Amino acid sequence: MECSRRLLHFALISLLLLPLFNCGSQHSSDEKYYLISANLQVPYWQSAKAGFFQAGSQLQVKVEFAGPNTYDPKAQQQEFQNAVSQKASGILLSAANPELMKPEIDAAIAAGIPVITLDSDSPSSKRLFFIGTNNYQAGMMGGKVAASQMHGKGNVVVFTMPGQSNLDDRLRGYRDAFASYPQIKIARIVDIHGDPRVAFDTTQEIIGKEKDKVDAFVCLEAQAGKEVANVLDRYNVKGKTVVAMDTDAETLDAIKRGAIVATIAQKPFTMAFVGMKLLDDLHHHALQPLNRNWAEDPFSPVPAFVDTGATLIDKNNVDEFLAAQKSATSK
Predict the structure, then answer these.
(1) Model pTM?
(2) Same fold across 32-133+267-309 and 135-265
(3) How far apart are CA 229 and CA 196, in angstroms?
(4) Rounded to the nearest 5 degrees, what angle is found at the Cα of 160, between the Cα atoms of 156 and 162?
(5) What is the pLDDT of residues 238-286, one digit of tens each?
(6) What is the rounded CA–CA span in Å between residue 114 and residue 286?
(7) Smallest Cα–Cα separation from 274: which of 108, 55, 42, 121?
(8) Which secondary structure element, helix H or strand E, spans residue 324, and what is its range?
């Protein structure tokens, strides 16, 4: 009898201690999370990949970085479809074409796969929420710098990709910043179609024919700024204001030599790192129902928007930024 009581006591203690010895074992071997970008080769997305993989390593789950090697919304759509067909545990997506991706996101949500957008949103879809920069505020930040450098007057050329929601929000921010300066005019908006050579060729054309009519170049995505700077350097053109986006090495070098006045630094590593952690939580603690409009629910357990912040980088703090970047990437 005494022996039976001891065995029962031991069994109860073992059951109570079991969760402590198995912490972290909530993840199954078939879990897999996807980060799907708009262009795998851009340094911005390599930074995001590092954040995504670091979070996956901490959680001890499988992760995959997917997307086209050049800007190609249809190819991105196919990569997303592949992740859904592989029964992804969760998908982090930067929507190159928000409307193209809307039915795909909605279908994934209907299949029970949590989808979070980052960097570029698809706001009309049923994605759970957006992680990234407040792009309107980033545009306002850049617009104020450009207006100051132009002394409140002049013509501006904008390089962008219309229809991509993050870039459209940045342009709206620039327009509102320029609204206080009636002598500043956006003279031309150039769609680079994801190809930096368009920015190079267009700037070269402008410098050759219209250099006295254009006072500033505004670049709403990562690739155009360094191309504009290279053209201005090649033709030894001075006195033009260039405001860039993001922090690849060539852009930062152009700031140091004075070809670019400033760039707006986002946090792709943070976006993907936080996004991976949240996908994991959503997979293990599923929202019920997943396709509910959680953004308008006053008691929603998830946010509508996670703002990862942005920083203005110019000649005054570029060296400090480079030192911090080196420290972070060497860990």
Answers:
(1) 0.81
(2) yes
(3) 12
(4) 120
(5) 999 999 999 989 999 999 999 999 999 999 999 999 999 999 999 999 9
(6) 8
(7) 55
(8) helix 318-329
| Residue 268 backbone phi and psi in degrees, to 5 | -65, -35
In the prediction, which pLDDT does 19 show?
41
Cα–Cα distance list, 35 to 69, 197, 231 (Å)? 14, 27, 34
Identify the CATH class of 135-265: alpha beta
Q: Please identify every stretch of the chain with a pLDDT value under 50, giving residue numbers as ranges.
A: 1-25
Q: Are 202 and 231 in contact (CB under 8 A)?
A: no
The tally of CA atoms less than 13 A away on the side-chain side of residue 59 is 27
Angle at 127 between CA 121 and CA 128, to 5 degrees: 110
Q: 32-133+267-309, what's its fold?
A: Rossmann fold (3.40.50)
Place of tokens 């999370």: 33
Q: CA 97 to CA 95: how far, in whole Å? A: 5
Q: CA 267, CA 137: separation in Å to the nearest integer?
A: 15
Give which of 272, 283, 263, 262 is closest to 308, Cα–Cα: 272
Crossing angle (nearest 10°) for helices 196-209 and 224-234: 40
| DSSP string over 226-294 | HHHHHHHHHTT--S-EEEEES--HHHHHHHHHTSSSEEEE--HHHHHHHHHHHHHHHHHS--SSTTS-G
Query: At residue 68, what are phi and psi to the nearest 5 degrees?
Result: -75, 160
Q: If we measure between CA atoms, which residue out of 51, 118, 45, 97 comes closest to residue 306?
A: 118
Residue 137's identity, in one-letter code, is: Q
Query: Domains of the chain: which residue ranges?
Result: 32-133+267-309, 135-265
CA distance 322 to 328: 10
Rounded distance, CA 114 to CA 31, Å? 13
Spatial distance between the Cα atoms of 128 and 133, rounded to a whole number of angstroms:
17
First vs last Cα of the chain: how many Å apart? 59
